[in-house]
Amino acid sequence: MLRLSNLTAGYDTVPVIFNISLEVAESELVAIVGSNGAGKSTILKTISGLLKPFSGEIEFLGKKIHKLTPHEIVKLGIAHVPEGRHIFGKMTVKDNLLMGAYTIKDEKKIHKLLQDIYDLFPRLKERENQKSETLSGGEQQMLAIARALMADPKLLLVDEMSLGLMPVMVDKVLETLKKINVEKKVAILLVEQKVQEALEIADRGYVIQTGKIVAADSATALLNSELVRKAYLGL
Ligand SMILES: Nc1ncnc2c1ncn2[C@@H]1O[C@H](COP(=O)(O)OP(=O)(O)OP(=O)(O)O)[C@@H](O)[C@H]1O
Ligand SMILES: [Mg+2]
Predict the structure, then answer these.
(1) Distance from Cα 146 to the centre of ligand 2, integer Å
(2) Best residue for ligand 1 mutational test, from 7, 32, 35, 42 (most atoms within 8 Å of Cβ)
(3) Which domains does the chain have, with CATH numbers?
(4) pLDDT grade for 44, boundaries at 50, 70 and 90
């Protein structure tokens, strides 16, 4: 579904990710794990068109997308939940959700998407008229994911959803992502510093260190690998 080939990208003229090649298949849940500053967010920003690659290619559903605008990329079916959530605090929960559907013109479809989202996140339905900034951290993260789903994506990019959440909330949000993946068949590319938690729900994973992929395997194999156990799990 998604294929990155030898992608190099960065800021101004300075590359921070080098020759990244990775794939996500239909309905797959793939994790990119690594430490602070490894380049995880940079990979997602390049896929969603916020950054243009210096070299290499990105293909989505058979179409080259690395020269398209973020808007065109959303329309093709890729939605990005950015690091830090970026929800609009002064707006209600419902208005934030409706913003997520900005590429969709069909009112009936928007209504249907909203009902589906409320089925999946009953807490957001209960709070639809509440100002978003008054939600708890976990609820805000759910809202950020829900808003991305309002674009009706085929592929969801999720950046560091664990940030600022207590461990029990991290597990809850990850469970929700797994549910979206399995029940709604939305493919997910997740980036996380919480290596163990992410690999526990993923099908496959990539380990990134200083901008380079240093391991790629099934999530189970990575969890049992010497590299992951030593460098990230402290075992
Ligand atoms: N807007 C920017 N301008 C210049 N350099 C940047 C910018 N954003 C990130 N960088 C640099 O690019 C490198 C990779 O950053 P990136 O945000 O992709 O890391 P990350 O793996 O997402 O880290 P974290 O886990 O802390 O979120 C870092 O060295 C960072 O300082
Ligand atoms: Mg990041």
Answers:
(1) 20
(2) 42
(3) 2-86+152-231 (3.40.50.300)
(4) very high
